[in-house]
Each structure stands twice: as C-alpha cells, then as structure tokens.
Amino acid sequence: MKRLYSTLVFLLFSYSTFGQSSSMFSKEAVLEDLDYLYTSLKDAHYNLYAYTSKETFDSAYSSIKNSIQKDSLSLLETSNLYQKLAAFAKNGHTGITFPIQSYGEYVYAGGTLFPLEIAFEDNKPLIRKNWSDNQNIKIGSEVLSINGKSINEVLAKIYPQISAERLYFKNVKIELLSFPRFYWQMFGKQDSFEIEVKEDGKTQKYTLKAVKGIEEYEMKRNEIINPSRELKFIKKSAYLHVGNFSGDEKLYQNFIDSAFTEIKKQKSKNLIIDIRNHGGGDDSFSDYLISYFANKPFKWNSEFTLKTSKFLKEHTRQNFDTTEVYWQKVLTKKDGEIYKYEFEEYQPQTKKKRFKGKVYVLVNRQSHSQSAVTAAQIQDYDFATIVGEETGDYPSLYASIFQYSLPNTKIPIAVSKGYIVRINGSKKQEGVIPDIIIKDYLLDEDDEILNELLKKINDN
C-alpha cells in the first residue's frame, strides 16, 4: 500500500506528450479554480498553517486573486498563479509541480534556455555546468547578475513558486529541476544573457547566447535523481546503490535478495548503501532493504496520523479499493478528523540471510521524501552509520500525499493528508543530520562522500 510518495516530477520527455498548443482559460474559469484551490487546501491539508499563518495565506490568496486582470490566461500563466498560492503553505509535499506541459511545448518548438546550471554552496549560487559556447567561464564561479538583475532579484522571483519548508530546501529543488528551467518559467524566452560572475575574487562580465532547449540542453545533461540499481565491490566493502523506492516491488525485492546473496558470497566486511540523489517512494521498499541488516523488529515511524476530509473521501472513492482497512478508515471518520494509523513491526530477515558487518548509509541534500525518512529510521534504531550531508527533506514531515485536479483547468494539485514522526519522536525542523558529516559538492564529478568514507574505512 502506497502511503508516502515523493512529489518530485522528473522531466522525462517523449515527443508524443506535447502535440498541442497550450490551452487558454477565461478569467472566470481561472478565478473559479483559484477559489476551488483555496477552499480545497484549507479542507484537505493536514495542517495548512504549520509553517505559515492563516493571515499570510489568506493575504496571498487575495493578492493573487486581485492580480488576475486579463480576460484570458495561458496554461503557464495559470499554473504559475496556482503554484504560488500552494507554495505559501511552505510544505514540500503540497503544491503544483513545475509546469512540464508548457515547458515541453516550448522546448520542442525550438525554445531556448539560459546556458548555465547552478549549485548552491554556503547559500552562494555557483556555476555547476556550462552549456554555453564560451568555455572560458570557470566552473565554481559565483553568479552575481543576469540581464541587469542581481541574482538575489532573480531568485526572489523564483522562490515563491517552490513548495518547501525552508530556503535550504528551495535551493535543493532549484538544483534538482535546474536553474535554466526555472529561469525560463519566470522570465520567458531570452535570446542572450548579460551576466556578471565572480571568478577568483574578481568580477567578470560575459555575453552568452541562449542554448537550444532540446539539442543543447536536455540531450546533454543528466538529471540529478539517479534511479539505477547497482552492486559492486570495493576492496572489502560492498557498495549497493538501491535506486528509488518505487516501481515493480517484486523486481525490487529480487534485486535486494540477489545483492545480499552475492554480498554474503564475497564475505564483505563493510556494506555501503547509497540513497543519495534519491527520489523517495514507498516504505514497503525501504523496509525490505532494512530487513537485511536490522537486528530486531522495526517500524518506519513512531507516529503516523491522517486527516480525512470531503476532498479525500471523494478521491478515495474514485481511485482506491474501499474494502481495504486503510481506505475504510478514511471514509468512516468524520470530515476534518485526525486519527492515528498503526503499523505492525517489520521483521528482520533470518539470521542466516542478514548482513552482520558494518553498515554505512550515504545521504545528501538530494535524498528526498522516503529516503530521508529511511535514513532517520536507520539512524534512530542504530542499524547503521549515516554519512554525508543534511537532507533537504525533514524526516518528521507532512506528507502521505493525494492528488486531485482543479475542475476547469485540470491542473493537478498534491496535498499532504498525513503527518509522519521519525522513530526517536523528534519533530525538529531540520533534515537528517549524518553521524559522519562530509560535504557533497555538486560542482565537480568527484564523489567526495564515498571517497572520504572509503578512506576512513581503509584507515581503520
């Protein structure tokens, strides 16, 4: 049963997806859906005002509503308005995703993009990838301005569109979905870019041509999230990259079974499990993984509560098997009621199957959703040593999302219907803090976290 999803949307394009022009919506239809979004968020969200006040949210709604003056709006304009309202909840699992359809139509029609990707180090926007025809620009240079706007002004335009609990997580999402895409979303098509950067302490100015969205950008880059599954051996250590906690569960279990069989054959002293650049997924996947090195029964949360609502009930009747106990409770509770849902302890594998050596779990700021929850779970039970940098997502979080579409525009909205508390009961507004902290620099291809850990293991 899927209870905790990643809200991330990975931009995997197919030409068949984008064949029509963006829809146009009347002012009346846009206003109706804005009202529907406002009402449904208040009704369906577990705690809409956890990170923002009611006054702030209501003020944002009024401001956005008053800003709608045109007789008709495009799909992109409409999506941006709704995305901004949802983002005022400051909840990473509640919101409207990046406008994929509008973006796809744009780039497949020959649209161009800003040619530099950005990573944030110590809150500074540094150049991570240079797709321009000017290779003199150094990787790691700090971006100061673009087309006459300071980088702070540019980011101030982008940040309100991103659903996240804090600035650290907003920056993580910009890295994830990429700065050029967000820049296009908020500033539209630009043929060239006048930029200022700081290189080696000196300010430099460059004029860059926009790059073709498909041929010179999408086809050259790799997404940060890595769903691949891999087992390899590095001296006395087994390295296991488990991929996302989603997909065909039986195939995933077969991979885990075969991996641990091979690890046992190789008599590995250490096991390194990599859940960096991880899109999250479902607890049934992560629990199965943990069962191979847990030394006692375990759960994935200390408390899991849900809020039922009119919107959730309608969604449940349309999409799920209402004979299941989990969904029956949604339907039988009163609208607005918050209730606990208990999970049975998950049992470890038999002693014969279990890995008994030292286990390390790698995380970084791109360990999202269920991967952050899993890292906290492992840490709190002391099943392994967590290595890397603080996760962007909180391990105690508003999640367990469901999704519905707005009636006129059909734009989908994801809403958190549950609250998950990590095993140790902490509700601190922070990510998972590793036991061994090693920074993960996205500016280069070096794997600082894995390499530093291997040095420590070999030193011991």
List the helices and strands and how they pair.
Layout: E1 24-26, H1 27-44, H2 54-67, E2 72-74, H3 75-87, H4 100-108, E3 112-113, E4 116-121, E5 124-130, E6 142-146, E7 149-150, H5 151-158, H6 167-177, H7 179-187, E8 192-199, E9 202-209, E10 211-212, H8 214-218, E11 230-234, E12 237-241, H9 249-266, E13 270-274, H10 283-290, E14 303-307, H11 310-319, H12 325-332, E15 338-340, E16 358-363, H13 370-381, E17 385-388, E18 397-405, E19 412-421, E20 436-437, H14 448-459
The end-to-end distance, rounded to whole angstroms, is 42 Å
Number of helices: 14
Largest sheet: 6 strands, mixed
Unreliable runs, pLDDT <50, ≥5 residues? 1-21
Rg on CA atoms, Å = 23 Å
Helix content: 25-40%
Provide mean pLDDT, rounded. 93
* Sheet/helix structural class: alpha+beta
Q: What is the number of E strands? A: 20
Beta-strand percent range: 15-25%
Strand order of the largest sheet: 11-12-13-16-17-20
Shape descriptor reads: globular
